[in-house]
Amino acid sequence: MGAFGLSAEPALPRARESQGRCLGCGTLLEEIWSEEEFSAGLCPRCGLIFSETGGAATDYDENYFHNMMRSERSRVEHFRRLLAGLPHPLQSPLLDVGAGLGHFLLALPPRLRPGATLVEPSGSARAYMERALGIKAYPDLESVSTERMPFAAVTLWDVLAHVPDPRAMLVQIRTRMQNGGALVIKTPHHPRRLFTAASLLRPIKKGRSLLHIPSMRTHFTPSSLQKLLAAAGFQPLSWQWVSETPLQPRAWFGKSALLHAARRIVLLHISFIVTASPVS
Ligand SMILES: [Zn+2]
Question: How far is ligand 1, taken at its centre, from the CA of residue 106, in Å?
């Protein structure tokens, strides 16, 4: 229970069946939150929560990558800490999906870097990596050269929650992995109680910001992500809570800092990592 004092019977809008079905198991979703044209549906079977965004999508524009570039040092250090905390050391060849500006690559130990393959959908981010790191990233999984497969390790750092069909992406990844390979997924922790807190913020229309909607399309907990992995042909191996990149100094002020504090109080843990291996 968070500091909002939420009980087991939260003041939610009456649950109703949305048109949507769970992308993990196909069960009809129950609406648990809405604000203006946005809503979210919970799968009663596996606990996955999906956003309905009315067609709105986040634009990962110049500004997004500019902010990422400015925090390169802290991001690389953060990736080093995450790597050091993994229960199984990663092996080469490695594939990083959603590479951004290549900060994870910079954090990799030298033994893993030469064989690393990057996928990044943003054209400007790919151009930057080619210019700054001399690395040619692929725009999508389909275009990755077969010579580089199968991969011994695949990493998804805050990517899976943003893609339209996470199960389809996991299946695509599985077919490109070695038996016994390791898939590492880091993603925000968005349990149902965060949606209850977001409902309380409806009068000031801040629920959507708390939930990162429309940017986040699927909302995971360690348990629901492991169910999705099993549905996509993976055996979950381990999971752990992890910290986030430290806030930039200027983000400590203003409304975003208040939302950040609210999120922290409701969630206790901001994000987590699950590791899994393909089922042979
Ligand atoms: Zn489901």
Answer: 36
